[in-house]
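ok here's Aminotransferase, seq below lol
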Amino acid sequence: TILTINSPTAELQALDAAHHIHPFTHASGLKEKGARIITRAEGCWLQDSEGNRILDAMAGLWCVNVGYGRDELAGVAARQMRDLPFYNTFFQTSHVPAINLAARLAELAPGDLNHVFFANSGSEANDTNLRMVRTYWAEKGEPQRDQIIARWNGYHGSSVGSGSLGGMKGIHAQGGMPIPGIHHIDQPYWYLEGGDMTPEEFGLARARLLEEKILELGQDKVAAFIAEPIQGAGGVIVPPSTYWPEIQRIVDKYGILLIADEVICGFGRTGEWFGSQTMDIRPDIMTVAKGLSSGYQPIGASIVSDAVEAVIGGVEFNHGYTYSGHPVACAVALENLRLLDEEGIVARARDHVAPYLKERFESLTDHPLVGEATIVGLMGSIALTPDKASRAQFAGEAGQAGYICRERCFANNLIMRHVNDRMIISPPLVISHEEIDTLIARAWKSLDEAH
Ligand code: PLP
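and the structure came out like this:
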């Protein structure tokens, strides 16, 4: 049987439950309930098989920056499929979409980040980084510099390499992770872990853990430090203002490479084109994906500095994916970047959307369940708490309150995510003020129902 978007929901759910293994999902729980079947989308709105209209405050998975339903992207994909649906860039060949996209990314990326290695996802791009930084130091005559420092509760992907860079204990628990040579330091999560320190003191203290780790491992042993400018999947953890300047000072002092994982922060999400600009840091390598194509095609990339390329360009880098620089994905990403730029979507998000969203989102702290709201640009989260003054956690199973709240949002046709007891938003950059009002009203109602 081939079902369609007009097939009965029960049939779609039954076939889904029978054959489809969902990522990051408790299978039996989902089979009991049945998956919600998403059939169409337009702007910031999804439609399900029952005809409900759902406000997507997560832009898919932090992806759909230009919003759903952009015909231009469909047109470009169809044209590219007819002209050249596939060719690889391994063996002395290239093609126009990859050439144009690499050049455009070099133009957009800050500083001297001028060279692009393509992957199909953020995970693959971070696996690339892992190998690239070790190749870099080996070629520079320092092969012993192969240790990489990352952070607990950071997220860099779900392959074995990128899952090892990430600091998600649930992923490591599957075994064999982290792979050797990767070390984690604590995150700058003041609200939960700051104790009696001011955010500024805590930011400095957490940044200095990097220096301690470098000295513990040996300063000539460390290849790179990787971090998200703002942790996304960890719960939208905005670091205190003192954190990044101190990190930049430390990586500069010890001459280790800084990898900014911009998979979520990139392409307007934090207000600027890149989170590195918002946080004022100077990475040697940036990981991008998601907003690069607004999710219309799977594509990721590592964007590297002139200095890094000058070294790895001198050897054969034994790494690549069949679909590195896939022509259709590159063509769609290039068109997406054109829309973000020429329609002023990034600039409008920063100047028109973000200030209003901040004001409205922060009003959720008036709700008795909400301990804090943090938001930068168009990524934000609220912390649920039984006691605002002490920033306490709910007793019982961790994340249960967040889960309940997320379910209430879902029932109220609003997509928010929960990470433990933080509730997250990351809407399309094109969200209107009126849609923001709807988002906040539905979030408030869901909080009331969860209370
Ligand atoms: N890096 C960051 C910061 C992410 O948020 C994600 C995904 O959420 C990834 C990497 C992994 O990207 P992908 O799921 O495309 O492999």
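fwiw DSSP finds 17 helices and 15 strands in the chain. kinda neat tbh
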